[in-house]
Amino acid sequence: MFIGDSISINQWQSLLCMLHAAVPTTSGIITQDLHNHTVSTVTFKHYKVSVMLFRSFYLVDVDKETIGRVLKLNSVRNGNLWKEIDVLIFNTWHWWHRRGLKQQWEYVQVDGKIRKDIDRTVAFRTALRTWAKWVDSDVDTNRTKTTPFKGSIYPTGLPLAGYAVKEVIRNIKKPVHLLDITMLSQLRKDAHPSTYNGFNSMDCCRPHRAKHDALHNQYLGYNVKCNSSIVDLQKLNKGKWTPPYSNRATQPTMKKAFPWSLCKALVKP
């Protein structure tokens, strides 16, 4: 189960596309939307495997009260739905600093007191401690994986050249700063495919078709269209260009069947 925001959604979609490419037919694939569209499940019936997504911006609870939506930093009742899962993958932070219309709550409750707002880093740390207590008290390590792979045996890694660069830079006496784009790209390879791929749809399975992938767009801070190959460097140099913030989140809610047809374009090894 992936638990988190759009980063978790992208990871979930990407894994499903890879699994779909490996199964001989879609006849045994079942899609479900549960708990008021909070949980999306895709089950590969013949293999007795389910890949699930639990949407949670903050991991802790957000409840609708008479005063409005309350972010409860000491409560993680949603954990009751996570207990029986074999592998849990958590993600949070992206939404903690949001304000205004993008803020998903009106009040914060901490230690029994309700406030209009508190320092976001303090709130984040408090929520993580609540989540950590849940892990210690409710996760059965005999069933649920907390470390799926050890670093020494994980079947991937950075290119060897990357290690060579870091080793050499460590031995330089004068300060040299390395912007490790390769490492950064490994953290989130697909970014928001539906926003940046130029097709205006969820297309995580055809990244090779776009001229400008999402990673380069996010590094530049510029939403480069697929039919554009030149960035106006004059605007950049003269300071007239401001990196826009895109809020065009077009992730599927699974109210309809997962778009398996998009996955057919995967490049087979």
TrEMBL record:
Pfam families according to UniProt: PC-Esterase (PF13839)
One cellular-component annotation, GO: Golgi apparatus
Domain Trichome birefringence-like C-terminal positions: 1-146
Signal peptide: none
GO molecular function terms listed in the Swiss-Prot or TrEMBL record: O-acetyltransferase activity
Parts forming coiled coils: none
Recorded family membership: Belongs to the PC-esterase family. TBL subfamily.
Name this polypeptide is given: Trichome birefringence-like C-terminal domain-containing protein
Organism in which the protein naturally occurs: Gossypium stocksii
